[in-house]
Amino acid sequence: MSQTFNKCIARMKGEFVQGLIDNNMLLIAPDPKKLQTKETSGPADENFWFTLKSGAKSPLFWSIQTIQDNPCLWYLAVSLLVNRIQELGLEFDKVAGVPEGMTATAAVVGYEFGKGVLTIRKQEKSHGQGGMIVGNLKPEDRVLVLEDVATTGLSILSEAALKLQKLSGAKNVKDAVVLLDRQQGATENLAAGWHITADKDSGHAVVMNNDGPHPVRLHSVLTQSEAIKYWNPTTPHHKAMKPIIEKYLAQNTK
Question: How far apart are CA 215 and CA 236, in angstroms?
Fold first, then answer.
């Protein structure tokens, strides 16, 4: 790959990250909801950081499941996904997006590669043709799964890989590509084929293997650490937050 092309991809990534921030899809602390009743003491005040599903606090929060609402950002997202898939040389027969945030994007990526597209439903339908998916899934089909943000890998496993395995009786999903890897263990969890669930007593995420391992290789367009390098802060607050975020990522990502 030429240096000129690499620079072009880097520029697209930079435009993508900055576009997410400009369109409130990458939120930087303080959390607006927490500012309603209290006053922050400054950028490093963790009391005003975002609370993640795991209960951990973070100075940044990704919310890009509605990216198709913004044509420019969606174009960049699709272009970066297509380039990454080509770069990896992945082989697949069908494309599927984790519902529902990546359903539309998967359809466009499938079109770009001339591949069939499977639509995975959140819930099974009993009327019409019914079922959990729209599309013709064969046991021998290799399905490439797309996701917007990966944290633990739970959505990729439970909403895509394991659903498709249940329907076809085969481990159709070998690879998944995510726009943004939060570096919280998704790569390792998916490689081990673990199924992640919540402990009934504590509520914490625990790893189960009741259904048998289903290893999936996770590939990312960007990791959190990489994405922040492309961010060029323009406001005093964001300039103050960038080194705090970089320190947080250095200490809290895998």
Answer: 44
Pair of tokens at residue 5: 């092309």
Confidence of residue 128 (pLDDT cuts 50, 70, 90): very low
Residues 189/124, Cβ–Cβ less than 8 Å: no
107, 198, 123: which is closest to 163 by C-alpha?
123
3-state class (DSSP) for residue 42: coil
The overall pTM is greater than 0.85: yes
- Answer whether 154's CB lies under 8 Å from 115's CB: no
For the cut 60, the answer to whether the pLDDT of residue 126 exceeds it is no
List the structure tokens of 136: 């013709």
Give residue 142's pLDDT. 98
Alpha carbon 96 to its chain's center: 13
Q: Pick from 98, 122, 97: which is nearest to 111 by CA?
A: 97
Q: Of 138, 149, 71, 134, nearest to 108 (Cα)?
A: 71
